[in-house]
Amino acid sequence: MNIEITNLIKNFGDKTAVNIPNFSIFQGQILGLVGNNGAGKTTLFRLLLDLLAADKGKVEYTDETQKSIDPSQSELWKKWTAAYIDDGFLIDFLTTEEYFDFIRKTGEEAKKTEEGDTVGSDHLDYDDFIKEYQDRFTNGEIFDTHKLIRDFSAGNKQKIGILSTFLNMPKILILDEPFNFLDPSSQNMLKVMLKKYNEETGATIIVSSHNLEHITEICTRVVLMEHGKIIQDIENHDRSAKVILENYFKVAE
Questions:
Q1: Average of per-residue pLDDT values in the chain
Q2: I need a labelling partner for 168 at 20 to 30 A (CA). Which of 63, 97, 209, 243 fits?
Q3: Is the dihedral of CA 28, 29, 30, 31 positive or negative?
Q4: Cα–Cα dist 163/63, whole Å
């Protein structure tokens, strides 16, 4: 799945949060977004997900048939897109199991055509998925607890939100600051999960983070944003983007 951005502008009062003339994200890339606070990363994500209306310009998704879909005009993109921006995405009066069941059923319904058939043949083996990551990613803390999501710590809420994005095997996966609140072991496991999912499915993954180590370790391409604009677009071969980014963010002595 490709994403095309054309003349995209979003203002909040007299402040321009996003101003991107032209930008393409290609299928199979792991794209990292970096920038200081207020750079426009989260606003861009919300525009990609039709959570905000653009003042000008558009976002288009291109599916496997090369059909262009404007997310502000069609619901089709939701069949193969998943995202976790913050804990506002969670349904916090459910348990983890209830929330995951809801996500799975919603995804199955979204992928049905008008004729009742299911779009695509890829299905996640839920039991194997949970078994694989229950201990390695969650430390066994979010399942079989009978706790409501609202009663979990910030770190465990983050884990629930992140895991939920994999359940319906999206072709586009968007994560905003996913390493926040996670312990070091879970951060490292998340990097393994993202690279493995990309390699096995060819999914397009877009991740923002303030942590340059994490971004340059997993991303094939890194975009630097400031004041709503794309300042640099860097191919990240063998972590070559790390030096460029470190020099940019270096504080003068």
A1: 90
A2: 209
A3: negative
A4: 24
